Amino acid sequence: MLGLSVYLNEPLHLDDLKQRLSQTKNPSIFTSLHLGGEEPEVEIHRLQQLNEVLQESGAELIADISDEGLKRLNISGDPVSFFEKSGVTCLRLDFGFMDQEIVQLSQRIKLAVNASTTDQHQLEKWKNQGVHFENLIAMHNFYPRPETGLRMDFLEKINQVFQTAGIRTAAFIPGDTRRRGPVYAGLPTVEEHRAVSPAKAYLELKTYGGVDDVYVGDPGLSDAQWMTIQSISDGIIPLRVDWADEDYREVIKGRPFTNRFDDARDVIRAQESRQEKVFSEDLLTQRKIDERLVGTITVDNMDYGRYAGELQIARNDLPADSRVNVAGRVSAGDRYLISHIGPGQIFVLN
Fold first, then answer.
1. Which ranges carry the 6-phospho-N-acetylmuramidase N-terminal domain (predicted)?
2. The predicted structure's pLDDT at residue 293
3. Domain 239-349 - what CATH class?
4. CB-based contacts of 57: which residues, under 8 Å, 6+ apart?
5. DSSP reduced 3-state for 6
6. Residue 268 in contact with residue 320, Cβ under 8 Å?
7. What is the mean pLDDT of the chain?
8. Cα–Cα dist 40/48, whole Å
9. What is the pLDDT of residues 198-214, one digit of tens each?
């Protein structure tokens, strides 16, 4: 799942938000109610506007709260009732909440606890105190200041604790367009993700970090990155291509292929290319022959006998072969995705 972040201390972009929410499964939004920077009445009004969008889309809303934030917004009495009426489905507890308050809140609403500072001992303590674990999510912080984000190995280790306890985990990746101030250096959970594309950060959290739900910490994400992540979450890895042969482009572009389950060391082998006879005979004559650097897309020609018509992507640098035609090469910005194409993985060349 890919969630979005919306902040109430800045103007809302509701039309863009509606479009994004309509394009995702199980839509979810993260917001913070203790940032300040706006009059409390303005933030409450924006929360009401956001609630209208939530009602239309069915999206969940996680609100980051603190004791100080509740006081600043003049939220008194029963805060859970206020939040439920405002469309909030989960409270992300920041600081200032005692264990007994967490127990009571967990009986009424979903809670996102700080995954980075909650350990096995604390979980056992909460369990003994009666916290409803079925209402818990373990959500890591994002880190605005460069050099302060988490290590990936730490993230993976601590998430194993929550997975064992049956608690879902969540973390953040940076955006790539509008970034949130005052530092404007991205809002990732993992430090190394500050300098990579959102799609790469998403894949690494899902593949190596043991993260169930990923949120874009910044308010802005480009359409290109949004579509890439949506495709990945649907189980299809999209690869942009610098085409060297227009005839091959017309046949290959946009068509899904599956890497063979007997995963080769040096190449990705599209199992449909020969099975379904994707290429006509005129495309199997010898065409462009060149060295096959990582990401090179090739089609075996007639000189390779029964392998003729096999589409491949080079995982490693390989020499030129007169039996192998070069159709193009995966664009530089997408070559990191090649390492994520394992046995049975669907991919599409664009």
1. 2-230
2. 98
3. mainly beta
4. 18, 21, 22, 27
5. coil
6. no
7. 94
8. 12
9. 999 999 999 999 999 99
Query: Which runs of consecutive H residues, i.e. helices, occur in the chain?
Result: 14-22, 40-57, 67-72, 79-85, 99-106, 120-129, 152-164, 198-207, 223-233, 246-252, 271-275
- Tokens for 291, please give them: 């060295």
Residue 180 gets the label, from left (phi > 0), alpha (psi -120 to 50) or beta, of: beta
Residue 77 pLDDT exceeds 80: no
Cα(188)–Cα(192) distance, rounded to whole angstroms?
Answer: 9
Residue 277 carries which side chain, given as an amino acid letter?
K
Residue range(s) in the chain whose domain bears CATH number 2.40.100.10: 239-349
pLDDT at 51 over 90: yes
154 DSSP 8-state letter: H
Rounded to whole angstroms, the maximal C-alpha distance in the chain is: 79
Q: Closest Cα partner for 292 from 320, 264, 263?
A: 320
pLDDT at 89 over 80: yes
Q: Give the chain's end-to-end CA distance (angstroms, integer).
A: 24
The answer to whether 65 and 43 have CB atoms below 8 angstroms apart is: no
For 271-302, write each residue's pLDDT tens digit: 999 999 999 999 999 999 999 999 999 999 99
Quote the CATH superfamily of domain 2-234: Aldolase class I (3.20.20.70)
- Cα–Cα–Cα angle for 152, 153, 158, nearest 5°? 100
Question: In whole angstroms, how large is the CA radius of gyration of the chain?
Answer: 24
pLDDT above 80 (res 94): no
Cα–chain center distance at 325:
35
3-state SS string over 188-221? Answer: CCEHHHHHCCHHHHHHHHHHCCCCCEEEECCCCC
Task: Indicate whether 36 pLDDT > 80.
Answer: no
Beta 136-139 vs 28-32: how paired, if at all?
unpaired
- Regarding predicted confidence, which is higher, 143 or 75? 143
Q: What DSSP line would sit under 22-61, residue for residue?
A: HTSSS-EEEEESS--SS-HHHHHHHHHHHHHHHHHHT-EE
